[in-house]
Structure formats: C-alpha cells, structure tokens
Specification:
Chain A: It comes from Astatotilapia calliptera (Eastern happy). The structure holds 2 protein chains of 2 kinds. By secondary structure, chain A is of the alpha/beta class. Chain A contains 9 helices and 9 strands. Chain A is globular and about 60 Å long. The chains are: A alpha/beta, B alpha/beta.
Chain lengths: 274, 269
C-alpha cells in the first residue's frame, strides 16, 4: 500500500469510495506496481478480494505483498482472498488429465470465440457471499475484483468485444449490485494510433474500458526519456463527479518505485532534483 | 440552443450526444433525463444484456421496433414517451449498424415514441458508422472538454423539418443537481482565435519614446542618398579622378614575380 497514492486518491483502508471501477493502464511501461498497491490496500481494508492472476503465479504476488506487509497465503486460508491462478489452470485445460477437475473459468482457452461467460460465473460465485452465518466464518467487507491483466486475453484469442462484455457484467454485479470495487489492468504497446475503430486491438479495448470506468490511472514513461531517479509519470483522471464537490478532473504525477513501495510527487519535484 | 433542446424535443426528433474518452457525455445525458422526467420510464437492460444469467428484462438483441413497442406498451402511459438510450455504442457493438439505423428510423416515424435521445461514443466506432447514425438524427450534440475545470464545449447541429441546418457552439457546465448552465456562446470558433493575434500586432503602442516621424522629417529621410548605393553621379566621379587627387604609379618589381606553382623559381642556382 503506497501512502502517497492513498492521499492522491483520497482513500484510506477505513474509508474509500464504493462502487468504483478503477482502470489502470500503461503504454510501453509497466503499471503492475499499482496492482500490488490495490491488492494490499483492499486486503488491509478487510474486503473480500477475488484476484484473476492471468500473467503471474501466486508466489510472485505473495513475495511482493510480503514486502508491502500483507500475507497472501494467510488471506487465502482465511477465505478473504480467492485467487485464480490462470497459468496453472490453463495447463490443466491444455493438457487434460483424468484427476484434474478444476473450475471452468479458463474454458475460453478451448474455444476463444465462445466468450468469457464462464470466467464471469467464476467471478460471480467468488464475490457473492455464501449466506448461512456459519460459526467461525468472518464477515468481510464489500467485494473487490482485481484483474491482471485484461489485454492478455486478447493475445489468447478472445475478441475485444467479448472482453468488454465481461467487464460490463462484472461491473453490473460487483459495482452496482454488491457495491464493491473493480480494478483492471490494461496494457497497450506502441503509439496511440488514430485507428478508425476497425482494428479491435488493445487501443480499442482501452477506449471501451475508459468509457465504463470511474477512475483511470495511466502510466507512461517520461516523455523526455529515461531517468534513473524518476521511473515514469502517472495521469490520474476522475470521470465521475466526486462527492466532495471538487472539480479537478485530471492530475499528473511522477513516480519512483522503491524496494518497499513507490513515491509519487508533482512533476519536477523529485527529491533527486530539489 | 442547448437550453432549447433541454426544454423539450419536438415529436419525431432524434437527438444524439457524441462523446469521447476525454469527456463523458453521461452527465449531459442525465441532465436531459432530469429535464424530461415527467415523460420517462426506466427499463433496465444493464444487469443482463446478453442473457448470461437468464434473468434479463431486456436483451440487446431485442432492440427492434416490435419488441420496443411491446415493451413500451407495458408501461400503460397515456402520452407517447421519450426514449433515452444509454448507450447506442453498446447496441452498435452487438447489432449491425444498418439494423440499428433501420430501427431508429422506424422509431422516428412511428407513434409509440415521441422522441429518442441516445448517447454515442464517437471514438469507439468507425467514422462511417458514426456518420450514418448521426445522419438520422435531427440534432447532434458533440461534447468535448473545455479550457477550465468543470466547463465543457458543446457543438450543436440542428436540422429542422424544413431542411434548414443551424450550427452552434456553446460552453456549458453541469451542476450537482444535473441542471445545465450555459456559460457563453461562441457563434464562430475562428473569431476567438483572431482576437489574441490582433492584440499582438501593435508593439508601438505605449512606448516611453517617440518613434513617429513628422512630415518634414519624412521628406528629409527620403531625400537622403545612402552611402553605398551606386548611382550614376558617383560612378563618373570615381572613374575620372579630379584635379589634385593622388595618383598611384606602379612599376613591376622583380620580387613581385612570384609563381605559386614553382616556389623555387627565385633561387639563383
């Protein structure tokens, strides 16, 4: 959890806006440090987290979260964290064995044209709390869905339209119905092309998700080139009206990733410069 | 013009709000909804538009005139209603543009719906699709972010029934209760651009010294002969040396006879 980012977004683990769809995007950069931030933030806020880890293994996130002070293995054991290990599950689908049952979530690998309905059903069953009031089951806060990342689905053969439908359904269930939050990571490579919308690639997916979301964090390298002390810039854009009456819609920050966190500062105020 | 459109649309009108990633048109759409509230009924196709959970009230594939009229008749409202579509882009992603255009055109003519207001994300579709849908509309409002924080620019094109097209550009802002205040009207975008240029063009104003010429000074300036201009009088004066001017007599000396190609020419060997 990065404390400076919390103050920028005006959120603490005790009080944050519910029903938000946060879109983290990057272009020729790596915004996955923000996913680690949101994972540790929502686990600290005692929310029920459903994490679709499609690009890295569980141990990767676990090791980084330990540095941020959160234990993923403990959270998974307690039932607070439901982790879909995309890499492992995809192996069981591509190399089917008799003993593997597994969830049907990664079924789209068999036939990408079918769409992501099964993945959505996995998400829905994870975030909806099982009723009952059993003894010893802790009450968690609002559900949170984290996806890392959506653009890898495009390389697996899923169409961008299907990915947008999936995010729409997740938003309808998690944000509107259950008043939870969603954080999705989209990665674009290459320049911002002025394609006509005919090429449904990651740029088009980014535009579609931007229209659906309420807060975007766009990570890019510095426009002036490589710098050892500043790793890039983050543009934060609020798309919905905020309750506190502020009207600032866009803010730009520069950031530096450390071993145990990241620091954010206004452009030109890096500690290396001042 | 924006306030006129907000107050009431004529029968058979189709209004399209075009937006892009940099500014969302949803706030303006909500303003239209709140302005038209007495003639509105809400049908939710949000939770299950594709029928994935089998609990949908209305799926995207039901967007055709028959189904819509059936749905609207269920509300048992005496007056024809205003149909607000949020968003048309969603429908265009799942149904072919010609089918959507056909439905819109039939709705425009039919009696069940008084007016149609739709939100379209212009950067999500090809220019041809956007153009075809906007061509059907009687009014198109394109919203873009403005220069100041909460202001936005709206470019409005309105087609009247007689075929007259009026265009307007206004700066507006939306307050917390979704009421729209038009901040200013700019009838030509170009006029705003020439004004700062005109202000830059007069650096001679407000100087502490005088750089203007009076008439006698200007005459004297024009009469002045410049020193290196080669006029006819100067030419003749230079060529014919006057009396008493120095003359230069030159007799070639042996030392001056230096041949560049043979530097040892002067050696007396």
């Amino acid at each position: 959890m990065f404390t400076e980012l919390n103050s920028i977004l005006n959120a603490t683990p005790d009080s944050f806006t519910q029903g938000e769809f946060i879109l983290v995007s990057d272009r020729q950069s790596d915004a996955s440090f923000l996913i680690h931030h949101f994972l540790s933030f929502y686990l600290r806020a005692r929310c029920k987290v459903c994490f679709l880890g499609l690009v890295q293994s569980f141990s990767h996130y676990s090791a980084i979260s330990q540095r941020l002070g959160v234990s993923l293995t403990q959270a998974r054991e307690k039932g607070q964290l439901i982790f879909l290990e995309g890499l492992k599950e995809s192996l069981s689908i591509l190399i089917p064995q008799e003993t593997t049952t597994g969830s049907q979530a990664m079924d789209f690998l068999r036939d990408p044209t079918v769409g992501l309905q099964r993945l959505y059903e996995f998400v829905r069953s994870s975030v909806s709390s099982d009723g009952g009031g059993e003894e010893g089951v802790e009450e968690w806060g609002p559900p949170v869905l984290l996806v890392d990342d959506v653009s890898v689905l495009l390389s697996l053969g899923v169409s961008a339209g299907a990915a947008l439908d999936f995010s729409h359904y997740c938003r309808a269930t998690v944000c509107s119905q259950l008043q939870g939050n969603i954080v999705m990571l989209v990665r674009c490579h290459g320049e911002e092309a002025e394609d006509d919308g005919s090429d449904e690639g990651s740029e088009w997916l980014l535009k579609g998700l931007t229209h659906q979301c309420s807060l975007t964090l766009h990570v890019q390298g510095l426009p002036t080139g490589y710098c050892r002390d500043i790793h890039g810039q983050v543009e934060v854009c609020w798309r919905r009206r905020r309750g506190d009456g502020q009207h600032t819609q866009k803010k730009l920050f520069q950031y530096k990733v450390h071993d145990k966190g990241a620091s954010f500062f206004a452009p030109g105020t890096s500690s290396a410069v001042l | 013009m924006l306030s006129e459109l907000l107050q009431g649309t004529d029968t058979g009108a189709v209004l399209i709000i075009q937006d892009s990633c940099s500014y969302s048109g949803q706030h303006l759409l909500k303003s239209f909804i709140s302005a038209a509230l007495n003639k509105l009924h809400f049908h939710s196709a949000y939770t299950d538009p594709l029928g994935w959970t089998n609990r949908s009230a209305f799926t995207v594939h039901q967007f055709c005139v028959e189904e819509l009229t059936h749905l609207l008749k269920q509300t048992s409202h005496p007056k024809p209603v205003t149909l607000v579509i949020d968003s048309l882009s969603w429908i265009l992603r799942h149904m072919s543009p010609p089918a959507v255009c056909k439905s819109l055109q039939q709705l425009k003519k039919g009696g069940a719906v008084r007016a149609v207001i739709g939100l379209l994300h212009a950067d999500m579709h090809q220019r041809g699709t956007v153009g075809s849908v906007c061509h059907l509309a009687t009014s198109v409002i394109t919203v873009a972010p403005g220069t100041k924080g909460d202001e936005a620019v709206a470019k409005i094109t309105k087609r009247s029934k007689l075929g007259k097209v009026t265009q307007d550009e206004e700066i507006f802002s939306i307050k917390g209760d979704f009421s729209v205040t038009v901040v200013s009207k700019t009838s030509h975008a170009g006029r705003r651009q020439t004004e700062p240029e005109e202000q830059q063009m007069d650096p001679t104003a407000n100087l502490t010294f005088n750089i203007r010429l009076s008439d006698t000074e200007r005459e004297a300036k024009e009469k002045l002969a410049l020193p290196f201009v080669f006029s006819k009088e100067k030419k003749t004066a230079l060529l014919q040396s006057g009396p008493g001017s120095g003359r230069i007599l030159y007799e070639p000396d042996a030392n001056d006879d230096y041949d560049q190609e043979d530097p040892d020419d002067d050696l007396d060997v």
